[in-house]
Amino acid sequence: MTQSFASTGVNFKSPQVPAIQSQPSELKLHSLAALWARKYVLSVTARKDAKPPRKLETLTEVSSLEGRDRTAEKLNQNLTLASAQAWSLTETLLGEEMRRHGINPDLINPLEIAADTRNLFQKALKAYRKEIPPARLSVVLGADCGQVRQKYTSVDRRAIGFASMQFHYTGQKLLECLSRSEQGLFQSYLKVMDDHMYMPLQAAYKAAADLPLNSPQLLAVQHLLPTSTNIAHAVFDRVCRQHPGYESYSGLVSDEKVKISSIRDVEMFQVYLCLCVLQGNICSVQQELFPLCVMLYPRLGVNWSLVQDMLQAIVWELHDRLRLEDVAVFLPYLRTLSEMFSKEVFQNC
Fold first, then answer.
1. pTM
2. 227: Cβ contacts below 8 Å, ≥ 6 apart
3. How far is it, in rounded angstroms, from Cα 229 to Cα 227?
4. Which of 47, 109, 191, 207 is most buried as measured by Cβ atoms within 10 A of its Cβ?
5. What secondary structure letter does DSSP report for 158?
């Protein structure tokens, strides 16, 4: 049973506090602090009550110079906050994996990773303002993305996982501040940057430059790359039919953002496959792709059976779309990838 203070017989006396003499309201408002406070409240209220700017509704409006300026300015204003939110998500996702995989924490500098990410986005926004098309952005920004990849793979290749996830989450956060029409235009730019951060494209270009123009390896890669996006879409559709209703860390596989990420991953595997062919070995898979998948996929809720079915679907798509002599170039490396990602490897894990 609870007792009131009065029922206990204890007499609590309130301390005597000197009364504050009230002043006329007009005198209060004349103090500098009150004047500033009043000014601030009025300005906030004015912004709240102001009619919001007209939203860009059409792609024509968004893609105009004026529309691009508005979009770029909006993204610039939100870039710092988006970067901070992105690192919080990246750390939540991969913090434990860094310890579990024994990655040297000195290699993961959040301020440096965030700064590199912001720098890439700022360069992309300059290109966006100038109406540089997404296809051209690959040329304009590809080398910069390649330098960032080189920076985070030079000591421990797994460090690129933190940089790429930071980049990905920053892009997702920036998209949230855009209208649908703006998202529709900017997403194509985001995909170009995402591709260069996730995929060893610069390494593939360098390896290709070392081969004769008529080499079977170079010809096979030249025939695959132009159709790799179509292959990725077809593989995604095939795997979705095999795993209906599958849900990952980011949501249902049918969700748009999960679909975009999944298709990008299928393209990523194809680029690594091409790199193996061009370099004549599987070092890039052993040292980079496989460790990254082991680190990221369990955290992202990606089942290894999906990866196995994806690789099998890529085999079928290559058979359907490429010449037999090209398929013969890729098959030995595809078999190796399938063996590395087989269920026997991950048994009891």
1. 0.81
2. 321
3. 6
4. 207
5. G
